[in-house]
Specification:
heterodimer; A: 797 residues; alpha/beta; Ubiquitin-like (UB roll); Alpha-Beta Plaits; Dimethylsulfoxide Reductase, domain 2; 26 helices; 30 strands; 29% helix; B: 160 residues; alpha+beta; Arc Repressor Mutant, subunit A; Glutaredoxin; 5 strands; 48% helix; elongated
């Protein structure tokens, strides 16, 4: 669009036509105050805070609804303007309770800030204040009517932003009141968006209300540890008896990929961290019972048991299971530990998506994966399978915003009418389980349509859809775990032909990281087959035989047959998540690192209590490949992080930890300028890499950034800007397989988590917020348990 | 829920008059109120579905207009204007007289369910002040005698 030149407060500005005056001012660093205006939501023009003087216009104008015009001359802070704003504030304060000393928003309240600025604190009104008691609308949302300044932000964000439409306005004029959809309570997605967008303390959250004051907390921006979307969440922490307690989660600074979005999990489900059942010290099994022990004894015992198994039955008698919630550094370290220290490829994790097939289908092509940000601006999106509203709330938000703000075309292919079909340009309801055939049809196999068509979907409609898709440029293709193996390949081939970008949806916060870091029996980090010589073999893997190890289910079978002497489970709960019979593990020595006595931990021989993702540093890779830094926010006395535990066990086993973690300057073995052999004349590769990246050598073996150095140096796609990572930004990684082997990572082993908006695997079981909300929305018959159900046992499922 | 044949027919033609379905909401609410006496939960839900809005949105609209109501009022709805023009010409007395004669206060219904009394703002009949509305009819140039006559007449009509 053509550019327009205008003058604001004597400054000449040039902005595109169609820009709102308030945005033009903001862009030039001129702050026009506002209440009811909110970027990306429809215009309201209700509060009159943004009044400005415009030459040749007789009255003051609202900057939030005025479009810039050529030659406009604007004054944003004249006496007249100030007086108008001051009067508006006086009216707002006329019935405001002024209970700032106890209000949650005190100190972070836009009304307080404005009053401070314009000095409208003196009241000319003598009328009695119209008081209403606070109401609880849901476990999450509380409403304090007298504090409401009727800016309508909550209504618009719930409707336009969330597509939930559960808040409305009743009555008219000064008696207007925000109303929930069920007369006296809410039925909604409990996202808390309305609470955070409220400029005052009218909407408050069950999690935070009356708990603390904003200035008493330390605010740490880190990454949500629930689903695979990687929202940035700013955690407010405060000192408590047990360490630093997280009391609030929000993203009001809009600094992450998620902008202001967070779902209930990122905003409120941090409470598992201080759940009363959290383990404060290591446990060891004595006479069939888990009893407290010391860290030293626990490490000694584990090292001894590993050594015993190695001596008696060799490396293949030990298995390792990693996690979808531990950091990339921990995952990388864990597989290195398994392969080097234990000497086994028996390592796996709970797989929720076919990332290996995806990586091999992309065959190393650059810029073929979409980031979470790309979804916000893509001209067209194809979504096959999954239900993002439930399983990937941020992705659903990105898609909705893209359709609403950019008129993107959305093609939804699903076996049920998922909520996103309301935004869809085209919705194809295919027969359940026929996602693969749909893709084969897309790829040109017309016969595959036979099993896809249904009374809801004709063959003609399918053909029209295929033709339409072929004509979309800039398409982002997003697919759920319904597609695996050859179907992923067919879809990628179809999309690549027209320059599409892809997102493969996996569940849990770091499932993509677990896959990228090589928690597979047949693949190393970067999806490199253990069978072929790789740079890992060159640097550290030359001693172990290049034969694939056992996968998770094979390990369980081996355990049942008494062949698995020891099993090391880090942050995973296979008994519940993969439906393993607990007795299968009775013959093995089981070591579990977890926060709670999960189903798996409760049958272990040693349990090490560990920190969760909110309590440590490291990196996470979300399902679309965006890498972000975790920052330590919370703290729980007595626990250690998984990284440290792994290193300490290796050290106890007499392993040289320098070989495991490149710390102290001389990190790898290819160093010290050998005079003979392949490395002759070379200096330490790791040190060279560090120097070339302006990084310091790390001084502690417990420093996860030392591991990140190695990851960035060796895992393709992870050589990304460290500076941006450190600055708290998301950095998109390329998905590159080291060699293009196919058919790795058995698709049959993929078990989707099937979490809903209100569940989050094992973590969710220990979040009271999620449990309360979940119970509220499940029909009563869901709560009827088997007769032997013990409500005290809060695990599993 | 089904409305009377006549109303159903009306709805069917009216929806075709507007580019979007929701536009028919306000007139329909008035007709439904006339038919049912008030906008019941059931009726709100029904009309919401028909015009593709949520129940909440329909309730938002109802609460905006003082002529739309969710609770039944008397069969004869007396809305007495007490705004300036009428006030100057004795509307206060008229209102007091109604109160006494009907034995109810502002916004109340008589025990037999026949009369509902309400004080309202200007109804646009200032030239014939004091004025009132009885359901959809204007009654103008009110006097004490006129009120007596009106109420008596209605009572008689109901007894037959
Ligand atoms: S919590 Fe979310 S879904 Fe519920 S009312 Fe608020 S914005 Fe709407
Ligand atoms: S509750 Fe808050 S966000 Fe909603 S209208 Fe009132 S002040 Fe605005
Ligand atoms: S969408 Fe996912 S990453 Fe974002 S807050 Fe919710 S659970 Fe966390
Ligand atoms: S911000 Fe412009 S009227 Fe409210
Ligand atoms: S003042 Fe009574 S009708 Fe106008």
């Amino acid at each position: 669009m053509a550019d327009i030149t205008l003058t604001v407060d004597g400054k000449k500005l040039t902005v595109p036509a169609g820009t709102l005056l308030i945005e033009a001012c903001k862009g030039a660093g001129i702050e026009v105050p506002f209440f009811c205006y909110y970027p990306n939501l429809s215009l309201q023009g209700a509060c009159r805070m943004c009044l400005v003087e415009i030459e040749k216009m007789p009255k003051l104008q609202t900057a939030c609804t005025t479009l810039v015009a050529e030659g406009m001359v604007v004054t944003t802070e004249s006496d007249k303007v100030k007086q108008a704003r001051k009067s508006m504030l006086e009216l707002l304060l006329a019935n405001h309770p002024l209970d700032c000393p106890v209000c949650d928003a005190g100190g972070e309240c836009e009304l307080q800030d404005m009053t401070f600025k314009y000095g409208a604190a003196e009241s000319k009104f003598m009328d009695l204040k119209n008081h209403r008691d606070e109401q609880q609308w849901s476990p999450v949302v509380y409403f304090d009517r007298p504090r409401c300044i009727l800016c309508y932000r909550c209504i618009r964000v719930c409707g336009e932003g969330m597509d939930v439409w559960s808040l409305g306005i009743q009555n008219r004029g000064p008696s207007s009141i925000i109303a929930p959809n069920k007369e006296d309570h809410l039925e909604c997605e409990e996202c808390g968006m309305c609470i955070d967008i409220c400029p005052v303390g009218a909407l408050t959250s069950g999690a935070y209300r009356y708990k603390t004051r904003p200035w008493e907390m330390k605010h740490v921006g880190t990454v949500c540890t629930h689903c695979g979307d990687g929202c940035k969440t700013t955690l407010g922490v405060r000192r408590a008896d047990t360490g630093m307690q997280i009391v609030r989660g929000d993203n009001r600074d809009k600094s992450g990929i998620n902008g202001e979005f967070l779902c209930i999990k990122g905003r409120y489900a941090f409470d598992f961290a201080h759940h009363p059942e959290r383990l404060p010290q290591p446990l060891v099994k004595r006479e069939g019972k888990l009893v407290p022990t010391t860290w030293e004894q626990a490490f000694d015992l584990i090292a001894k048991k590993f050594q015993d198994a190695l001596t008696s039955d060799g490396p293949t008698s030990i298995g390792v299971i990693g996690s979808n919630h531990t950091s990339n550094e921990e995952n990388y370290l864990l597989q290195k530990f398994a392969r080097l220290v234990l000497g086994t490829n028996n390592i796996d994790h709970h797989r929720t998506a076919d990332f290996p097939a995806f990586a091999s289908a992309l065959a190393g092509k650059q810029n073929t994966t979409a980031s979470m940000r790309d979804v916000f601006s893509a001209p067209a999106v194809l979504l096959i399978g999954n239900d993002p509203t439930e399983q990937h709330p941020l992705l659903a938000w990105q898609i909705r915003s893209d359709v609403r703000l950019h008129r993107a075309k959305l093609y939804v292919v699903n076996s049920s009418a998922i909520k996103l079909h309301r935004q869809a340009t085209s919705f194809a309801q295919i027969v359940s389980g026929s996602e693969g055939n749909f893709v084969q049809f897309l790829a040109g196999n017309d016969k595959a349509a036979d099993s896809v068509v249904s009374p809801n979907l004709t063959r003609e409609a399918l053909t029209t859809l295929r033709d339409a898709l072929k004509n979309e440029s800039g398409l982002v293709i997003i697919f759920g775990s319904e597609l695996r193996g050859a179907d992923v390949k067919a879809l990628v081939d179809f999309g690549l032909a027209q320059g599409a970008k892809f997102i493969c949806l996996g569940d849990y916060a770091n499932s993509r990281g677990a896959a990228d870091m090589g928690l597979y029996p047949d693949m190393l980090p970067g999806y490199a087959p253990v069978l072929t010589a790789t740079r890992y073999h060159e640097e550290w893997l030359d001693e172990i035989p290049p034969i694939p190890g056992m996968n998770l289910l094979q390990m369980m079978d081996a355990a049942k047959n008494g062949k698995l002497k020891a099993l090391y489970v880090v942050g995973s709960n296979p008994i519940a998540r993969n439906n393993i019979d607990p007795f299968a593990l009775s013959k093995s020595f089981v070591i579990v690192q977890d926060m709670f006595l999960t189903e798996t931990a409760s049958i272990a021989d040693v349990v090490l209590p560990v920190a969760n993702a909110y309590e440590k540093s490291g990196t996470y890779t979300n399902t679309s490949g965006d890498v972000q830094m975790l920052k330590k926010a919370g703290e729980f006395a007595g626990v250690r992080n998984d990284f440290e535990c792994i290193v300490r066990i290796a050290a106890r086993m007499g392993y040289d930890v320098h070989k495991l973690v490149p710390f102290g300057g001389a990190g790898t073995r290819a160093d010290m300028g050998q005079t003979r052999g392949a490395q002759s004349g070379e200096s330490d590769r790791h040190a060279v890499w560090l120097a070339s990246h302006n990084l310091e050598p790390k001084m502690s073996p417990y420093d996860p950034t030392a591991m990140l150095d190695e990851i960035q140096r060796l895992v393709p796609g992870y050589d990304i800007s460290r500076l941006n990572l450190l600055a708290g930004q998301d950095v998109h990684s390329q998905l590159v397989q080291i060699t293009g082997a196919t058919g790795m990572g058995d698709p049959a082993l993929i078990m989707p988590a099937n979490d809903s908006l209100f569940t989050s695997g094992t973590l969710g079981k220990f979040s009271d917020t999620l449990n309360t909300v979940y119970e509220r929305y499940s029909p009563p018959h869901d709560l009827e348990m088997a007769a032997d159900y013990d409500p005290q046992v809060r695990m599993g499922g | 829920m089904k409305f009377s044949d006549q109303l159903e027919q009306r709805f069917a033609t009216m929806v075709t008059h507007y580019p979007t379905k929701r536009s028919v909401l306000v007139p329909m609410l008035l007709y439904i109120q006339d038919e049912l006496g008030s906008l019941t939960e059931e009726a709100i839900h029904e009309i919401a579905q028909r015009v593709e809005l949520s129940d909440l949105e329909v309730r938002n609209v109802i609460s905006y207009y003082s002529m739309l109501r969710t609770r039944a009022v008397g069969k004869y709805n007396f809305q007495i204007c007490t705004n300036v023009s009428c006030l100057l010409r004795g509307a206060e007395d008229i209102f007091e007289q109604c109160k006494k004669k009907l034995g109810v206060g502002n916004k109340q219904t008589t025990s037999d369910g026949l009369f509902y009394l309400e004080e309202v703002e200007c109804i646009g009949a200032c030239s014939w002040a004091p004025a009132m509305m009885m359901n959809y009819e204007f009654v103008e140039n009110l006097t004490a005698a006129k009120i007596d006559e009106l109420i008596e007449g209605l009572k008689k009509k109901e007894q037959q």
